[in-house]
Amino acid sequence: MDTASVPVDSLESIRLRLSQLTHWLNRLQALVQQPTLPPWHTLHSQFAMVLKQLASLSHTLDQHADTLRATNAYPLPSFPVVQETGLLTTLLRKRVEPEVDEWIKAGAQEGAKRRVPDDVWYFAREVVDNERESRAWDGIFTGEELISNSDGDHKDGSSSSSAILDGGGGGGGRDGDVEVSLEQVLRYVYQGVDVHEPVRKVVINTSVRGPARK
């Protein structure tokens, strides 16, 4: 529904003034209906507040007179309020309809029935913990590489970048020089691992366990 043409600010201002006037009229009525009348100065102060609210309402109505003249209020004076009380109450209600409230409750109950079992969350947490523990997050090798047994040879025939480390023979591959791989150089730079220590192989466990039991 397009509400761009609805004078919300004007109507809200008038509603606020009417609400304040109703409040002070109710207070004045409560004082008058007491078994014993209050002191005259109390009644006078309450009556003065009512007059003040009336003046404020009159000023607000005059300020928004053009807007009110161009606005069609509902229900109109000819609306049969007594006969159509139920319809008027339905139109002015702020709560959802009873059937809509039932839909909301049914949806909440259905969602509770389809809740994921706790075993799934325990299993997921265990998988994540195992995967986290199998990695060395502060190095260039995984946890499997650091703990698995290896002689450092490339048995799959793959080539690896290497460098000649001067071991006292003057370089050029002469006696005393040590050939190291790029991985060993990186490990030495990042972790301080001796280049003579062989690079460990990667051993990956591909077995999958079922959900953990409580």
Task: Report the radius of gyration as a whole number of Å.
Answer: 42 Å
Distance between the termini: 54 Å
What topology, given as strand order, has the largest sheet?
A: 1-2
Q: Can you name the CATH architecture of the domain at 8-71?
A: Up-down Bundle
- The SSE order reads HHHHHHHEEH
Could you tell me the strand content as a percent range?
under 5%
> What share of residues is helical?
40-55%
- CATH fold name of the domain at 8-71: Methane Monooxygenase Hydroxylase, Chain G, domain 1
Query: Overall pLDDT, averaged?
Result: 73
The main pleated sheet reads as: 2 strands, antiparallel
* Residue runs with pLDDT of under 50 for 5 or more positions: 151-173, 201-214
Number of discrete helical segments: 8
Tell me, briefly, the overall form.
Answer: elongated
Structural class: mainly alpha
Tally of strands: 2
Main location: nucleus
Subunit structure: Component of the Mediator complex.
Region (Disordered): 148-176
Family: Belongs to the Mediator complex subunit 8 family.
Fold blueprint:
Layout: H1 8-32, H2 40-63, H3 65-69, H4 85-92, H5 98-113, H6 118-133, H7 143-147, E1 162-165, E2 178-181, H8 182-191
Antiparallel strand pairs: 1-2
Helix pairs in contact: 1-2
What would you note in describing this structure?
This protein has about 210 residues and is mainly alpha-helical. It has a domain at about 10-70: Methane Monooxygenase Hydroxylase, Chain G, domain 1 (Up-down Bundle). Helices cover about 50% and strands about 5% of the residues. It has eight helices and two strands. A two-stranded antiparallel ribbon has the order 1-2. The longest helix has 25 residues, at about 10-30. Belongs to the Mediator complex subunit 8 family. InterPro entries: Mediatior_Med8_fun/met. GO terms for molecular function: RNA polymerase II cis-regulatory region sequence-specific DNA binding; transcription coregulator activity.
